[in-house]
């Protein structure tokens, strides 16, 4: 029997096609997603999916979203690039 160890798992590449740079560069898009996540505005289908990843207390429901923490090494290269861009934008 062949099993995949937990250490070999990678986070999903489901969002690798999302142009995060475009979202972060557009105040309108970024504000739309933030409003959606905070429950202060309408959500797009993508916004609803992202919002579903968070529990009501703001913590993450799914493990792959914890990849914002630098000690996580299971991210795909594309997701690591997204994370760095997101962290830089949120710090501004």
Automatic annotation (TrEMBL):
Source taxonomy: Eukaryota, Metazoa, Ecdysozoa, Arthropoda, Hexapoda
InterPro entries from the UniProt entry: A10/PebIII, OS_D_A10/PebIII_sf
Stated name of the protein: Chemosensory protein CSP1
Superkingdom per UniProt: Eukaryota
Region described as Disordered: 46-92
SUPFAM superfamilies: Chemosensory protein Csp2 (SSF100910)
Pfam family of the protein (one): OS-D
Basic and acidic residues: bias regions: 48-92
PANTHER family the UniProt entry points to: CHEMOSENSORY PROTEIN-RELATED (PTHR11257), EJACULATORY BULB-SPECIFIC PROTEIN 3-RELATED (PTHR11257:SF12)
């Amino acid at each position: 029997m062949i099993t995949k160890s937990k250490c070999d798992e990678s986070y999903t590449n489901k969002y690798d096609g999302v142009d995060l740079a475009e979202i972060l560069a557009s105040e309108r898009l970024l504000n739309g997603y933030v409003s959606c996540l905070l429950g202060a505005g309408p959500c797009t289908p993508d916004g609803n999916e992202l919002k579903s990843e968070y529990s009501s207390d703001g913590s993450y429901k799914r493990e792959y979203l914890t990849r914002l923490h630098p000690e996580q090494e299971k991210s795909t290269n594309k997701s690591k690039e997204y994370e760095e861009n997101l962290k830089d934008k949120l710090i501004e």
